[in-house]
Specification:
Elements (H helix, E strand, L loop, with lengths): L10 E4 H4 E4 L17 E4 L8 E2 L5 E3 L13 E4 L8 E4 L6 E2 L3 E6 L5 H10 L1 H8 L9 H5 L2 E4 L2 H45 L4 H6 L8 E4 H4 E3 L11 E5 L15 E4 H4 L4 E4 L3 E4 L10 E3 L7 E4 L3 E6 L5 H8 L2 H9 L12 H5 L2 E4 L2 H44 L7
Helix pairs in contact: 5-12
Length: 414
């Protein structure tokens, strides 16, 4: 219990003095049916999402069961399984039934349900620790009733609940804004790529260097690169880089990761590539998810990897990074996905599709400028995303900090 002096009227109590846990009904599986006009939803643990509980995806029954009906606003808790301690305020339709191992946290006397909800969300981590102290995660009403709490008088509960709602709604608003940032930055990155490959990003550079847009030429990937280049003659005991599919990032502007292998171990049955080659995953869902890379800093300049990599070696007109930009545009990914062949789960982008992909190719100097500008802009986006993630982590802690301050009696003093 707390050693700090409590506000006047606050009392140290056991949770069981304030509320009780009502257990659910053990429906037989034979009672489960699909939703119909005469059926009633059974709310199971899977219908609790950690914030609310709903009948949206619930199984139904036509069995009549008295004493286990739910009401809107009931606070439900998962009492066993991997999500033991998960809470949800019921917002679904009524009538609805409470299933076994779903607890319903009911006030013993007159009280503020909103205060109860905030209190239980505050105690959630402690409840989970109780549940995971056993071989099979579970909690009982007795475990919950033994928890220590401090309880203000009812008028103070109502004021505090109102204060919690006000502050936490502000926190949720901040959280929603921060959670939208990755999607906004994804759109931003694609806009950068579109401007890069269309020439818009380098329009000022051309103007300053007195270079015409007509210096760009229409070509295809097959005309400016070699696909699946031949292997060099290499000593069996030479250490080289090896990259399997899981070592290739889905995020643009990320380096290819690799392991060390002896050439003798990986010279057969894998894709061969060298520094400067452009790698493209051809199998679903890796292709759609954006797996591609420019091979750099390979051990002894040589690498091998998944046979699901297509390897392109640019000729003297083409920079590897400029081809890489094309491979990461939504247009390329979407059209490639529509042209996939093969059975479900093993669909691949045909080599012919990539080789026939049309590219507007600027002079090498302009390619260098474009690649440099894209790198700077993408690095800027990466820093913004990291800052947003750090801010989101702090906001996630803020909710618990507000609740902790409130239940220490400090929030209403301000």
């Amino acid at each position: 219990m707390t050693e700090k002096k409590l506000p006047v009227g606050w009392e140290e109590k056991k949770l069981g003095e304030y509320l009780y846990l009502k257990n659910g009904y053990a429906f037989k599986r034979s009672a489960y049916i699909e939703k119909s006009n005469n059926s009633v939803p059974i709310i199971r643990i899977s219908d609790i999402n950690g914030n609310t509980a709903s009948d949206e995806l619930a199984i139904h029954t036509t069995e009549k069961v008295e004493g286990f009906e739910l009401q809107k606003g009931d606070l439900l808790i998962a009492m066993s399984g991997a999500t033991t301690g998960k809470l949800g305020i019921y917002i679904g339709n009524t009538p609805a039934y409470q299933n076994q191992r779903v607890g319903n946290l009911k006030l013993k006397n007159e009280g503020c349900e909103e205060f109860r909800n905030h209190l239980m969300f505050y105690l959630q981590d402690e409840v989970r620790k109780l549940g995971y102290g056993n071989a099979q995660p579970n909690i009982s009403g007795k475990m919950l009733e033994d928890l220590d709490i401090v309880l203000p008088p009812l008028p103070e509960q109502q004021k505090l609940a109102q204060k919690f709602t006000e502050l936490l709604s502000m926190v949720d608003h901040m959280k929603q804004k921060l959670e939208r940032i990755p999607l906004l930055l994804k759109t931003y990155r694609q806009a950068v790529l579109v401007k890069a490959v269309s020439g818009e990003l380098s329009s000022k550079w051309r103007e300053e260097n007195k270079i015409s847009r007509t210096s760009w030429k229409n070509t295809k990937v097959e005309d400016i690169s070699t696909v699946t280049p031949k292997k060099d003659k290499i000593s069996d005991d030479l250490t080289v880089s090896f990259s399997s599919m899981h070592l290739m990032s889905e995020n643009i502007n990320q380096h290819l990761n690799f392991e060390k292998k002896l050439w003798n171990e990986v010279k057969k049955g894998f894709s061969f590539f060298k520094n400067g080659d452009v790698l493209l995953a051809k199998i679903t869902p890796c292709f759609e998810n954006g797996k591609s890379a420019v091979a750099r800093n390979l051990i002894n300049g040589i690498g091998t990897g998944s046979t699901e990599f297509m390897v392109f070696r640019p000729n003297s007109e083409l920079l590897s990074d400029f081809l890489y930009l094309h491979f990461n545009t939504d247009k390329f990914r979407q059209e490639g996905s529509m042209n996939m062949t093969g059975s479900v789960g093993h669909r691949r982008v045909p080599k012919e599709f990539v080789l026939n992909w049309e590219i507007e190719l600027p002079p090498r100097e302009e390619q260098k400028f474009i690649v440099q500008q894209v790198e700077e802009l993408l690095n800027f986006a990466e820093k913004l995303e990291q800052q947003a993630q750090q801010a989101l982590a702090k906001v996630n802690l803020l909710k618990q900090a507000i609740l902790a301050k409130g239940f220490r009696g400090e929030l209403m003093m301000e």
